Predict the 3D structure of the following.
Amino acid sequence: MTESGQKFKIFKFLKIMISSFLIIILLLFTVASIRTFSLDVNAGLQLANWEKTKNISLVIDHHQREELIANFKEAIRIPTVSFSGTESNNTALLEFNRLLRKAFPTVFSSKLVHHQLVANYSHLFWLQGSQPDLAPYLLLAHIDVVPASESDGWEAPPFSAKEIDGFIYGRGTIDDKGSVMGILQALEYLLIKGYAPRRGFYIGLGHDEEVGGYKGALNIVPMLKQHGVQLSFVLDEGLAVLDDVISGLEGPAALIGITEKGSATVKLSVSMAPGHSSMPPRETSIGILAAAVKRLEENPMPRLFGHGPERGTFEHLAHKFRLPMKFIMSNLWLFSPLLGRVLERKPDTNAFVRTTTAVTMFNAGVKVNIIPSLAEAYVNLRIHSAQSLQEVLDLVRSTVGDQRVKIELVDGFDPLPVSSADEQSFGFQIIKKTVLDMFPTITVAPGICIGNTDSRHFKDLTSDIYRFAPVWFKPGDAKRCQFWSQQTLHLSLGLTEGQTCG
């Protein structure tokens, strides 16, 4: 074959390849464009026979509103602090129990409500439904808070419940006394109006969620198991309403957490013979450990965006973005790698992309001229839904890659199972439609909790655990402790009433 013939064949081959490539690109663009303008995340979500058919109207007069706010402020002023798994402010917990009885007399006196104290400070309420064949649900919240002091930069003392520009400041306003008081206040009003549920439900209030819930929630679970209870779903704190927080999203969005990341605390330690700074060895325990920590920080866990339920979050929100983001969000089957690279650039969105690694404690040395024999570091990892605890531990060991560094798992657990969020999901849809009743202009989407709650202890009692509280966040509010009493109350009222229709 002549040289010109060979060139012609090569040219023809390249032409075919380029044409094929362009055709594929055109097909992908056509499919993606059709999906962008036809994607309906609410398809099939018509009213079903288990949803509420009537509302119990809520009219709060000025006196009731003032009383509600006063009770909430009193709840914030009680420092129900959990310091550790073995130490809490028991005096404050007893005081909080007295407040609940004073603030909600109908709840504690009604013949419809069965109340039990759990582990001295937690509470379990049970309202039996008129149709016992309907599986009950559980509303979960917690009484305790983490420590706080004015030196942390508070604009008002953390247990003052001081009101500034319409916001109530205090530890626990969001996490989680807003839910505690909102749920019980809603039930109080419903009972006063003669409410009696068709579907039974439980209310669980733990007193040690901030340190794992091993006395509160973990003791409530066997009590339910003892009576053979299987729950339809659990609703706990978690995600919220985000208004102008997600860049490019038009309008507020309520994210309902359908899972939460796993967690692991890993201890790294290096032991060597002690020495003096005047005759230092080539490598010290601190230097070896610091190098190991640096390797963990410079080699993050693999990017896993699109391999977990986070893809559903963005697809549910796609129609609220403008082009070109709408095009990308609607076609994550094609653009997941691209969006994952964008999200990993910021710490707050990087958490949705991978298992995060945070060095939180580093301990070594007692004197400036003594080389310590022992250096320790603690690393906290929040595990992506597509990974397991064991996979993460294996990656930590391979990244550290130094036999001199001892690696120990202090505690940890796998990511929680993903709860259902389709049109057949009773729990998700009743929460979603209750939110839309309260806030009709909101977009509702499934989400992922990057923090942890004690709802994980209930996973043997239900396959559906949801994490949402009706707190309305605007830009900058994450740095502020705020409480929206009316919203929490309305949502709690809607849920308890909504579940009555079987």
Remarks:
- The chain is about 35% helix and 20% strand.
